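Internal ticket - ligand job 339, S-adenosylmethionine:
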Amino acid sequence: MEPLRDRFGRTIEYLRISVTDRCNLRCLYCMPASGCAWKPQEQILRYEEIVVIVREMARLGATKLRITGGEPLVRKDLVSLIAQLVQVPGIEEVALSTNGMLLERYAEALKAVGLSRVNISLDTLDAAKFSQVTRLGSLETVLRGIRAAQRVGLHPVKLNCVLLRGINDEEIDRFALLTITQPLHVRFIELMPLGNPEFFHPDRFLSVAEAKARCEVWGELIPADGLAGSGPATAYRYRNGLGTIGFIGALTCSFCHRCNRLRLTSDGWLRPCLDSRTGVNLREPLRRGASPDDLNALIRQAVEMKPESHHMSLAMRPTCAVGAAGRQDEFETMCAVGG
Ligand code: SAM
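stdout (structure tokens):
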């Protein structure tokens, strides 16, 4: 079967799947304190529907999956979904993005069914600040989750840290130090103008270039290639480091030319780019009994829609999109699309 190639010659082999828009945290930059208007249950893709889509994606050449959300571990029986996804012919790797709050409970079961590895969000190493940023979280609980992931071997364990000026900029060197003493892989991510419009402000933005300079207090950073799933990150390590540091310059660096992914939202839209409001609805056709060939055509349609690059900048955009054919009517948060 003809592999998935977009208009710019990029081969698509990676699907990010948001399994829920719900989350057990309310991170300042992601959503308002009151949470979001969660999607009704009947609009959320059932596990068997996700498996059908993944089978079709795999027939078209996808080899890698990432389960995200919302917080994927709040969805009932996530372990059983992962157990099914790792069995899909052609799928070589299934990874998970989590805030870590429930990881200690599930790490062993996830590893046992074949999850490859985890990325854990961690924006601060200060317990009081952690509670402030996440509103509902506990640093100690997440640290126990990280230790559990390491213990059961969900390697490489990556820590995703969103750069927030005035909140965690004084901790960048502390995060960097972790990669010297432990086999942990910290990834600094530039704040994107997505999620909570009340939080985003250009003054809060801190570039990966500045973060990298701050990391250099511990020594020279040497390019580090070959870490599983480096994706948009540019990775480095210290000469004596056990882990690595990745920089994801979502706004200041251009990595879209390497983009190899599509995103499946929790309510069944296939989105060509994190930044796009266009997409292809797979849920309705699936529920009307779409054949594999129909699905195949819809997936190719989403690939055709992939823009050459995202158009995010330091300006937050309005939170409502115009409803029109081929567009999702509602603006969705990072939670629904899956960050
Ligand atoms: N709950 C899971 C987690 O914490 O990893 C998956 C979903 S969460 C939306 C995915 C990632 O997106 C998290 O690491 C989060 O910090 C990041 N994120 C959310 N809003 C962001 C924004 N405006 N800019 C940059 N990263 C953001």
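Auto-summary: The first helix runs from residue 47 to 59. Confidence is low (pLDDT under 50) at residues 318-331.
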